């Protein structure tokens, strides 16, 4: 099983504080030929009686390297891979990349990050690590 991200427990607490139930830690998918894929968290919540249960998977990234672009490249590759696999194995589950609000400003409000968001390639959930709180959901 892979190592947990630096902010793993913070994001987990923030999601619980926001009304999510953590259903998987980590969210495990076993591929047909025996390979294993681990997304950091699986969660769900009741959104309305008529709409049912909303299911998500969350991959947490801390962006702690000297190069934000290298971190972005790695996170994007992982996000795209996980998204494609989730589409086949758990199509009702939406994937989000969890980053701090600071990373959101420094990386995803810049041109490269904005293109990924505007083109619908990546979805973000931002959090405040000190408050252990979810700040924004960015589709």
From TrEMBL:
SUPFAM superfamilies: Restriction endonuclease-like (SSF52980). One of its GO terms (molecular function) is nucleic acid binding. InterPro entries: Restrct_endonuc-II-like (IPR011335), tRNA_endonuc-like_dom_sf (IPR011856), XisH (IPR014919). This is Fatty-acid oxidation protein subunit alpha.
């Amino acid at each position: 099983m892979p190592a947990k991200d630096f902010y793993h427990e913070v994001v987990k607490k923030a999601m619980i504080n926001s009304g999510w139930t953590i259903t998987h830690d980590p969210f495990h998918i076993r591929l047909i030929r025996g390979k294993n894929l681990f997304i950091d968290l699986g969660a769900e919540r009741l959104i309305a009686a008529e709409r049912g249960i909303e299911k998500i998977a969350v991959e947490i990234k801390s962006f702690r390297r000297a190069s934000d672009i290298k971190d972005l490249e790695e996170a994007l590759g992982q996000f795209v891979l996980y998204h494609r696999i989730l589409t086949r194995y758990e199509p009702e589950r939406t994937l989000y990349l969890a980053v701090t609000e600071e990373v959101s400003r420094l990386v995803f409000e810049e041109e490269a990050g904005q293109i990924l968001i505007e083109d619908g390639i990546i979805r973000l959930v931002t959090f405040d690590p000190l408050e252990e709180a979810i700040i924004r959901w960015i589709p």
